[in-house]
Amino acid sequence: MTNFDPSQGVKISNPRVEQIRAALTAATDIHHIEHRPYLVKSWLDLDATSLVYGQSNTGKSFLTLDIALHVAAGWWWNSCRVTQSNAIYVAAEGGTGFTKRIRAIAESKPDLYNAAREHFHHLPLQLDLHGSDDVAALLTAIGERPVDLLIIDTLAMSFGAGNENDGKDVTQFLSHIAEIRQKLSCHVMLVHHSGKDQGKGARGHSSLRAAVDTEIEVSMDGSMRLATTKKQRDLEGGKVAAFTLNVVNLGDDQDGEPITSCTVQPQNTDDLKRSKARMLKGNNQVAEQALHDALKNKGIKITNSEHYPSNRRIVSTDEWYREFQMRRAKDGVQEDSNRKAFNRSRNWLQDQDYTREYDGKVWFIDETDRQDK
Length: 373
What we know:
By secondary structure, the chain is of the alpha/beta class. It has twelve helices and 17 strands. The chain has two domains: 38-267, P-loop containing nucleotide triphosphate hydrolases (Rossmann fold, 3-Layer(aba) Sandwich), CATH 3.40.50; 280-372, Arc Repressor Mutant, subunit A (Orthogonal Bundle), CATH 1.10.10.10. It has helices spanning 15-23, 60-73, 96-108, 110-116, 132-142, 167-184, 206-211, 269-279, 282-298, 317-328, 335-351, 368-372, and strands at 2-5, 10-13, 38-40, 44-45, 49-54, 87-91, 120-123, 149-153, 187-193, 214-221, 224-232, 240-252, 258-267, 300-301, 313-316, 355-358, 361-364. Pfam families: AAA_25.
C-alpha cells in the first residue's frame, strides 16, 4: 500500500507491504534451490527451533551439552558434519552441577574442550521466557555477541508463571522464542521432559510440538541411551544416535568423598540392532514379521506431512493386525485372544523403539533397506 503525502508531494511506502511484495515468488522461479545452513547436518538447521525431550535421568542434558560443545568446536557429531558456531547454554536448573559437567569434559576430553572453549558460553541462571522482561534483558545482555545455537535447559524452569498445558501460555512462550531466534538469527534448542507416557511425546500442550522444526526423543534401552529424531519439518526423520554415560572422577569433597560427573560416550547403533534382534521372540517376533509383510504389500510413503518420516513406508494398523491374524490362524486362536496378544506386542515394539504410530498408521523407526527390498 502506498499513501500520498500532499504536504511533501511524495508517495509514502509501507515497508511491510513492500517486504511482502518482494517476497512473492512465481511458481516458475524454482530452478535455484538454496542449501540450508546447518549446525549438525541432517539433525539441526541453523535458523530453526528444536525440542529435546525425555524422562528424567535419560541423559538429555548431557547429550545437549555434548552437541553444543561439538558445534562450538566444529567437530563432527554422530558421524555428521558440523558447522563451527557460537553456542550459549542457559543452564536454568544445572547450578554447580553444570560446572562439574564442563570440568568433566575438560579433564576427560581436553581436545574437544580446547577446540570449543572460545565459542562456548553458559548462563547458570533461571530466566522467565514466558514474560517479556527477561526476553528483553537476555537480548540486551547478549547484544552484538555472535550466537548461532541457544540452548534453554529446561523449558519448565524457563516458563515463569505460565502453565505449559495451557494453549495461550504456550503460544506466548513460543512467540518469545521466535522473537529471540529472529533477532539473534540462531537456532533455539529447548530441553524438556516427556509426559507420563513417553510414547505420546513431550509434556505440555500440543501446540509446542506443532511449532518446533525438530523433535529429538532421548530414551534408554538397558544401559544404552538413544537420541532419535521424531520430527523433522524439512529433513529426513528417524535418525538415531546411541550413547552411554562415562563417570568422571573430579577429586574429593571436604569429607573425602568422590566428586563425579559424566560425559557422553558414543556407541555403535549396529550393536543395538543386533541386541534387539536377539530380544525378538514369541508373539513379538510374529508381530514384527507381520508388520514387514504389511509394509511390503500395502505400505506407502507419505512425503507431504510433518507427522510421518518421508523415508519410511507407512501402513495402517488394521493391515498390520490382519497380517498378524493370518500368521496365527493355523493355531486356532480366538479373536479376543488374538487381539490382546497383538496389542501387547504392538505396545512392546513401540516401547522398544522398533516402531512409531500416528493416527492409526505405523512404521519402523529403522531398517530402511529391508523395507525397500
